[in-house]
Amino acid sequence: MRFRYAMVCSSNQNRSMEAHFLLKRQGLDVASYGTGSHVKLPGPSAREPNVYDFGTPYKQMFDELRRKDPELYKRNGILQMLKRNLNVKLAPQRWQDNAGDGAFDVVMTFEEKVFDSVLEDLNNREQPLMKTILVMNLEVKDNHEEAAIGGRLALELCQEIEGNETWEDTIDDIVAGFEKQQRRKLVYSISFY
What we know:
Layout: E1 4-9, H1 15-25, E2 29-34, E3 39-41, E4 50-52, H2 58-68, H3 70-75, H4 78-86, E5 106-109, H5 112-124, E6 132-138, H6 144-162, H7 171-182, E7 186-192
């Protein structure tokens, strides 16, 4: 393992956790986070989401939703998603609170507003190491099917990066090759720790 990766979405539930699960299974050094103020999961209606604080264990969410309405949360895939999540890590974590987790080499986000939040947070942090960090955005809709595709694409991209001595010298070629092969646009920026 050459690099350390962070997968980031809004609630650290679906897109970032699917990618975290796949990268971890392939032996990459990976963590995952959300950038929202709370963790939100679909509820009985769009106006009634289930809202949790970051740090609430996935097992607690799973047990609570299974008690509330097992048929609904099984049918919409939330219970299966939470089951996957609790096998990856204890609880959702917030990106803005991760400074103690150490430096990452590559951060992958799955939504433009999350990309912007990560960059804003990195720019507001002290940067004593002046270590470069690659922040990339792969736009992925927040549903189970798209998260599965996005997770596979994130794994493919990270494996491509991992195959190089340094990403700084090859990132333009990696992005161009990925965009051509996958017909998906990537946005990236370089920041510092």
